[in-house]
Every structure is written in structure tokens, then in C-alpha cells.
Design a protein that fits this description.
The complex is a heterodimer of chains A (152) and B (403).
Chain A (H helix, E strand, L loop, with lengths): L7 E3 L4 E6 L2 E6 L4 E5 L2 H10 L4 H11 E2 L5 H14 L3 E3 L8 H9 L6 E2 L6 E3 L2 H5 L20
Parallel strand pairs in A: 5-7
Antiparallel strand pairs in A: 1-6, 2-3, 3-4, 4-8
Chain B lengths: L17 H7 L7 H11 L2 H14 L8 H4 L2 H10 L7 H31 L5 E2 L2 H9 L9 E5 L5 H10 L10 H6 L2 E5 L5 E5 L8 H9 L2 E5 L2 E5 L2 H12 L9 H11 L7 H10 L3 H15 L5 H8 L5 H14 L6 H15 L11 H8 L5 H13 L13
Parallel strand pairs in B: 2-4
Antiparallel strand pairs in B: 1-2, 3-4, 5-6
The chains are: A alpha+beta (152), B alpha+beta (403).
Chain lengths: 152, 403
């Protein structure tokens, strides 16, 4: 189980990632697994990139979202643990991230209302070899590759 | 008709005017629909959006998309997003981009591993084509799909590199011979996952050894993960894009245009136009540079200075180069390739390979032809020659070998 004060880093160069219009796509080149993160999950990935600790990430999420059920701590920690188990992130003795949180909040929602919290989800695709040869026009649904079309 | 002495063995005696070049149509440039797609993928603001709408009104992506256009979709996606386009059809385009990004990342990973292995054996490596274009000029890992890996090593290291790669699981169907090294430019390798790797010992087919060093001298660093390799400098890269792209291949010739435009638009990139012209003269590819740059300037406002374009227009084009391109066009369109045309094509390539070697270098032409035709020996070559001579319309034995 990870500790609140633990800082993380992306397992580069064997883990590569890109933000495509708010969606973070991640590829673990060692395992060939492909991942997609949206919403809170994509935000947490950004916080990891900025070198925040688990506690800082949780603090950021708490400042950005409403939590009617109050299980955000468990959700965030489980998500970070899942990322670690998938080999996408690792503990890291990095520098302090003073000022990063304030800058992020100022940029993100200047005085805006808080959005409802949806627990972060790590969408995982393990059949990469098959996915790479998939026809991305005809064999996928409207959301596009890698979501395959469901046969009627 | 300009150029009064069409002597097949001489370079620069057959000069074509600009109009004649257009009339010749030895090159396949984009169709009007492909050009619209290119504009939607490369232009900015209203011009891009209007080209996209026009293309959509004429084409159905689900039904009629050629391979060349398909390869442009990731770039189209990134450009349309930059122009603020957001419509239901973008989901699929985003998916094409995601797939291209994933494929490219997988290939980069493979390339980095191979480059590391070659470098650990003390072999210099230069990345060609897709990888350096993506990393240095598109500066985007998904916008330009790559089909294979192209790595250049010095010619004297090619055999050791091939052996090392074989140990790493990259195998060739044919053994690499001394004649391949002497006359060829690359060998295709494949691994168990079906990925392709082109090991080059010359940057392009017909590159003369005397000028080969130009590519290495100005090379720039390209970083891939935790590996640093070399890549051609911007001027050599543009030269390579044009002379490799203009003659086309079985896939409709469309991507080289996006490559060239993306390259010159990259912030901080400077093209040495005079050096580009010198390169085309040295490598006897004036015709390709001329038609390529003219198309880019006329259709995509390519920023070549007026003075530079004048010099390009004045480049001499040899009779052999014209014949080579007629032969290639006939090959692409599955038309009859006359033996004489094929002969001129091979002679042109041999002259390119031995550029500056003087008349004495012609003594090696029969051996070159023997390699080209895969003839076992001179008797076999002679027999093939007689067979061709006996049948004016039978040009099959002159087919260019696929390697």
C-alpha cells in the first residue's frame, strides 16, 4: 500500500503517453498494453507528471470536485496503486512541487463551480498486436480505435 | 523541342522546358480529391476547413479511401483540431490518430533497441525517412504513420550490421552479397512479429559513394527515448523527401508533399537552397527536384526564394533521367515497358551510382546489369540480352529487382 507522502514518476522511456484532446493515452512498451484515461484519471496523470505526492494529488482533487459519497481518498489511492501495479508509474525521490498546485488551480477553474466526482478508471487493452492491425475506419465504433464495433 | 541531341550516354544534353515538363506527366501527383485532403491537413484557418468540407462532400471515408489518403488522416486530425473543428466524424479520425501513435511508438521502441545494439558494436547509425521526420519536423508522434524502420549505416559496416541484426531476430529472405553492397542501397529485414526493417548502406538508390559522405557530415542528433542517433540535416532531409517521393510508388504519392511542407514550416529550420540544388546536380536528379519544387511552390506556397527557383528551373535534365522516369511511370501504370526504355533506366541509375567516374567507369556496367537482372554469370546475362533483343515487346527480364 502506498503512503500519502510518496511522490511518483512515469516509468519512461518504456512507458509513453500523450494527451489527445483531454484523453490521456498510455502505452507500456514492455507489456504491449494500451491504456486510456479520461476525466479525473487524466487529471491525476497530469499531477503525477508534475511530481506531486499522493497527498497533494488528493488535495488537488478535493479542491476541484464535489464528493457526495465521501470515498475520494480510497478512489484516488486505489487508482495510483493500480497505475503502479501496471508498471506505469514508480515511487520517486523528486523535488518539492511548491507553487505547482496553486498555479494549476488558478489556471483550471478561476472561481468556477466544482464538478461532480467520478472515480478514476484505467481503461486497459491487452490485445495490442490485434488492435494494431484493426481497420480503424470499418472495424471500430463511432468513438474510434481501439473501441471495436459490436456486431449486431 | 529543346535539347537537340538525345544521346543516351550523356548527361545534360536533353533539356526540357517548364511547359514540356508539365506535359510529360511522368510523375503521378495527387488527384483533385487527394489535393483537397492535403490542404485540409496542411493549411490553416478557413482554407483548411473549407477544403475539409469540400472533400467530405465529394468523398465517403467509409467507402472510397485510397492508401495514400488514409496515411494522411492522423495529420488531418491534428490539423482540424487546431482549427477548432469538432463534429461527430472526428471520433473515427481521433481513433486513426491513436492507432498511428501506438504503432509509431512501438516502432520507435524497436528502433531504439536496434540503434543501441549497433552503437554498442561501434557502428554509426542514421535514421532515415519516417522516424526523423516525425521526431524532428512533425514534432508529433502520431501525425505521420510509419510502416517500417529505415536505418543507414556506413557501407563498410553493412555486413557486420546485418549479422548483428540477424542475431537480434531481424532476418533477410536473401543473403547480402558483395554485389548488393556495390550496387544496391538497402536490404529488407523482417522479425518474427512481421515488422519490417530496411538496413541502408546508401541513403537512397543510386547514391554515389563519392557524395555519400555529405549525408553524414551535416547530420544532426535525434533523440528517441534514451537513445540518440543521427538524422540528415534539414536540407538533406528535404532533398531525400523530394527525390524519394516524387517518382512515387504503388501507394498514391501524397505523403511526400505533407513531409516537405511540414519540414520547411518547422520553427528554427533553415533550408540551404543552393546546397539543395548542388545536391540534385551531384546526384543527377535534377528532373525530380524540378517537378517536386514546382508543384510545392504552385500548390502549397512553398517558401523557395525566387532566385533559388530560377536556378532549379535552369537545372539540366539528361535524356537518361527522362527515360528513367518514363520507365517508372510505365511500371506504375502496368504499361508496356520497352526494352530500350528499361535499358536507359538502368544506365541512368548506373551513371548516378558512378557519378563523376568518367567514361572508364562504364566498364563496370555489364556487371551492374548482371546484378540487376540477377543473372548467374555473363553467359546467363548474354542469353537474357539476346532474348530481350529478339522480342521487342518483351521486357520482363529487365524488371528491377525488389530489393
Amino acid at each position: 500500500m502506498m503512503e500519502n507522502g510518496e511522490r511518483f514518476k512515469i516509468n519512461e522511456p518504456n512507458v509513453v503517453h500523450e494527451n489527445i484532446d483531454g484523453e490521456t493515452v498510455v502505452l507500456n512498451l514492455d507489456t504491449g498494453n494500451y491504456y486510456s484515461l479520461v476525466g479525473v484519471g487524466a487529471e491525476i496523470w497530469e499531477f503525477i507528471l508534475k511530481g506531486m505526492t499522493g497527498a497533494e494529488i488528493l488535495g488537488m482533487i478535493r479542491q476541484s470536485y464535489e464528493f457526495p459519497s465521501g470515498d475520494e481518498e480510497n478512489a484516488v489511492h486505489s487508482f495510483l496503486e493500480e497505475l503502479r501495479q501496471e508498471g506505469l508509474i514508480a515511487a520517486h525521490d523528486g523535488d518539492e512541487t511548491a507553487g505547482v498546485q496553486e498555479a494549476f488551480l488558478a489556471e483550471k477553474k478561476p472561481g468556477g463551480a466544482k464538478a461532480a466526482f467520478h472515480p478514476p478508471v484505467l481503461n486497459k487493452y491487452t490485445d495490442m498486436q490485434d488492435l494494431l492491425v484493426l481497420d480503424p475506419i470499418h472495424e471500430v465504433d463511432a468513438t474510434g480505435w481501439p473501441s471495436t464495433k459490436v456486431e449486431q | 523541342m529543346p535539347g537537340s541531341f538525345p544521346l543516351p550516354f550523356c548527361h545534360g544534353v536533353f533539356t526540357l522546358t517548364s511547359n514540356k515538363l508539365t506535359d510529360l506527366q511522368y510523375y503521378s501527383f495527387p488527384t483533385p480529391d487527394q489535393e483537397l485532403l492535403l490542404k485540409a491537413a496542411l493549411m490553416h484557418g478557413d482554407e483548411a476547413v473549407s477544403a475539409w468540407k469540400k472533400w467530405q462532400s465529394r468523398m465517403d471515408m467509409e467507402r472510397e479511401l485510397d492508401q495514400g489518403s488514409f496515411r494522411l488522416l492522423p495529420l488531418l486530425y491534428t490539423n482540424l483540431r487546431q482549427q477548432g473543428v469538432d463534429e461527430p466524424g472526428m471520433g473515427k479520425l481521433k481513433g486513426v490518430y491513436r492507432q498511428s501513435w501506438s504503432k509509431n511508438q512501438t516502432l520507435f521502441h524497436e528502433i531504439a533497441r536496434v540503434v543501441k545494439r549497433l552503437q554498442s558494436a561501434g557502428i554509426r547509425t542514421m535514421l532515415l525517412k519516417g522516424a526523423p521526420l516525425s521526431l524532428l519536423y512533425y514534432q508529433n508522434n502520431g501525425a505521420r504513420p510509419m510502416a517500417d524502420i529505415d536505418v543507414l549505416v556506413p557501407r563498410k559496416e553493412a555486413t557486420s550490421a546485418c549479422r548483428l541484426l540477424d542475431e537480434e531476430g531481424w532476418h533477410s529472405l536473401l543473403p547480402l552479397t558483395e554485389m548488393d553492397l556495390q550496387y544496391g542501397h538497402a536490404i529488407q529485414l523482417e522479425n518474427s512479429a512481421g515488422r519490417e526493417f530496411d538496413l541502408h548502406w546508401r541513403p537512397f538508390s543510386g547514391c554515389c559513394d563519392a557524395h555519400d559522405n555529405d549525408f553524414w557530415e551535416g547530420a544532426v542528433d535525434v533523440v528517441m527515448g534514451d537513445v540518440t542517433a543521427l538524422a540528415p540535416d534539414p536540407t538533406h532531409m528535404l532533398f531525400h523527401v523530394i527525390i524519394h517521393g516524387v517518382p512515387g510508388n504503388p501507394v498514391p504519392p501524397i505523403r511526400w508533399i505533407a513531409d516537405a511542407v511540414s519540414l520547411v514550416r518547422t520553427p528554427g529550420v533553415t533550408i540551404d537552397w543552393q546546397r539543395l540544388i548542388n545536391l540534385s546536380e551531384k546526384h543527377l536528379v535534377g528532373l525530380r527536384l524540378k517537378v517536386g519544387l514546382r508543384y510545392l511552390r504552385d500548390t502549397f506556397q512553398f517558401p523557395i526564394p525566387q532566385e533559388g527557383m530560377k536556378k532549379v528551373e535552369a537545372l539540366p535534365v539528361s535524356y537518361l533521367e527522362g527515360m528513367e522516369d518514363r520507365f517508372m511511370m510505365a511500371t506504375r501504370e502496368n504499361k508496356n515497358r520497352r526494352p530500350y526504355m528499361a535499358f536507359c533506366c538502368h544506365l541512368c541509375r548506373y551513371r548516378r551510382l558512378t557519378a563523376g567516374g568518367g567514361p572508364a567507369s562504364m566498364a563496370g556496367f555489364p556487371r551492374y546489369i548482371q546484378w540487376r537482372l540477377d543473372a548467374k554469370n555473363f553467359h546467363d546475362l548474354l542469353a537474357r540480352g539476346l532474348r530481350v533483343a529478339g522480342s521487342r515487346f518483351f521486357s520482363k527480364p529487365f524488371d528491377v529487382r525488389p530489393r
